Amino acid sequence: MAPAICCPCLQGADSMQHTDVAIIGAGQAGLAMSRCLSERGVYHVVLERGRIAERWRSERWDSLRLLTPNWMTRLPGGGYRGANPDGFMTMAETVGFLEDYACSITAPVEDGVEVLSTERVDGGFRLLTDRGQWSVRAVVVATGYSNRPRIPPLAKQISSRIRQIVPRDYRNPQQLPQGGVLVAGASATGIQLAEEINRSGRPVTLSVGSHTRLPRLYRGHDILWWLDRLGMLAKPVAEIPDLTAARRQPSLQLIGTPERRTLDLAGLREQGVRLVGRAAAACDTRIRFNGDLAETTMAAERRLRRVLANIDRAAAGDGLYSIDPGSIPSLILSAEATEIDLIDQGIQTIIWATGYRREYPWLKLDVFDARGEILNDGGVCAYPGLYVLGLNFMRHRSSSFLDGVGRDAEALAAHLAMFLDVSRRAAA
């Protein structure tokens, strides 16, 4: 592999540095792009506001493990080579993996550099950072899918007597005030936090919204082994009938544990977690929840059965049908619409595990849609030389996965190299 090359050799008194491409973000997306550009001999720099894999370091709770098995930890030119392919990395192990990967590809990472603005100039872009300026011909935005927590507007109507946090602020139950906890959101994050906090002895109420229920294991294999085998994770977005709806799907309701167990709403209820519907309104210390739990769990049940039916057909064709699928009972729960007083119920904390949105206040370009998302076609933006990487359902179902971002990086690196060559010839 060609070594990664940053070309800051043209540096003037105004601290302006020059290279061909600036990659913003040194998580899995930025590092994968760095490797792919190095393969093509493209000069570039990776600008990271914190450290390599900063969000894995500082915005995850202590006990979290990856939801994907270790064998799915694959990036261009590097992947998991340990002794436990079916296990799930801890956050420390994930950070170590990405650090080792960055070292192995000699990624030109400039850490501790925050990009303050990115503007279009003749022949490329000017990036102002807190450590000087860069002049580049192309920019890759690789700041990740989980950029900013999405908090519902009703949170502003809740009394200041109730502590409100988001998952990136949570580390372990011991940091929470004594008393009950309301967890809003029942995707992977919400169910894991609800279980951990409940096991600490704090009463937990879980407000359930849309979710995708799946077993951890099915017919002798991890559920993601089946989705990978069926080609569902690599399915191009062009083959997805309703892409807008797909992009709004919540994360898979999975947990990564050494025993490879399943965690679902039935299990949480058996452990004593109180289940209610989606939070609909709030005033001071009172919150009203919809009576939509039956509808929500029924929709999740339909999605589950469709996935399992696809696996059953594939298993029959592959001669794996004889493996016992085990019993996966239907799970349709109900709860009446209800209004509770948080203080009366002893609830002192709300954790909003209600998804993410993205913000780019430093990107001073007219490239956004009405929701503030960067307009792009598979990562290629309308502004020549601007690219985005790592977004949900960007080119494939797994575009935002650690395992899927490399496929997109390879495609965008090819496009970017062609763009640089064309613009270089035009300038000549």
Question: Could you characterize what this model shows?
Answer:
With 428 residues, the protein is of the alpha/beta class. The chain has two domains: 202 residues, FAD/NAD(P)-binding domain (3-Layer(bba) Sandwich), CATH 3.50.50.60; 207 residues, FAD/NAD(P)-binding domain (3-Layer(bba) Sandwich), CATH 3.50.50.60. 25% of the residues lie in helices and 21% in strands. It has nine helices and 25 strands. Strands 6-3-2-10-25 form a five-stranded parallel beta sheet, with helices on one face. It has a five-stranded parallel beta sheet with strand order 12-23-13-14-19. A four-stranded mixed beta sheet has the order 1-9-8-7, with no helix packed on it. It is globular.
Quick recap:
The chain has helices spanning 28-39, 54-58, 91-104, 188-199, 223-229, 243-247, 265-270, 293-317, 405-427; strands at residues 16-18, 21-24, 44-48, 74-75, 78-79, 109-111, 115-121, 124-129, 132-136, 138-141, 148-149, 163-165, 180-184, 204-207, 212-213, 217-218, 221-222, 252-253, 274-276, 279-283, 286-289, 338-341, 347-352, 356-357, 386-388.
